[in-house]
Amino acid sequence: MRNGFLAFDRALRVFSAVAQVHPLSLTGWNGSTLWRDAYGPLVDDLVFFADDIFGGQFCIREDRIFLLDPETAVLELMAESLDGWAERVLEDTSYLTGQRLAHEWRTSFGPIELTQRLLPKLPFVTGGRFELENLYACDAVEGMRFRGELARQIQALPDGTPIRFVFRDEPE
Question: What are the pLDDT digits (tens) for 116-141?
């Protein structure tokens, strides 16, 4: 009934299917130069349609629904269909969307902007905690670009490998 929406204290953001290219439309969000290029081939065959409060990307690959971890680019199978995905989200809204922390954020700081997500100060993959003290509101595109670089740099490392952050002004 809606063409894009926010739900659960803005923890779930479903992109609009409008034909125009806008960062929060399916066409805009899936554009190759908005943020996807920061991930390179890690996201080539995925179509993104929604995200959680932390920028975890819900996507479609071969008619199945996955969740892409933005820090590692690891895919988790969520469901065999959009209906199955919606059922899972409704069964465990807090975990799958981050609603509890989105609510705590809104109570403490006000609602995040439509174009923002909550990112960890210390990335979750490096031990950052899912707590307000470790979060900040960030432009969603900027956050995806940063974490795309992180995912590419750590993708081949075994768990537990010490890492050093390398920041560049421009993508390779």
Answer: 999 999 999 988 999 999 999 999 99
Number of domains in the chain: 1
CA dihedral 65, 67, 68, 69 (to 10 degrees): -170
Residue 99: is its pLDDT beyond 60? yes
The gap from C-alpha 163 to its chain's centroid, in whole angstroms, comes to 22
Range of the domain at 12: 5-154
pLDDT of residue 102: 96
Residue whose token pair is 């071969």: 62
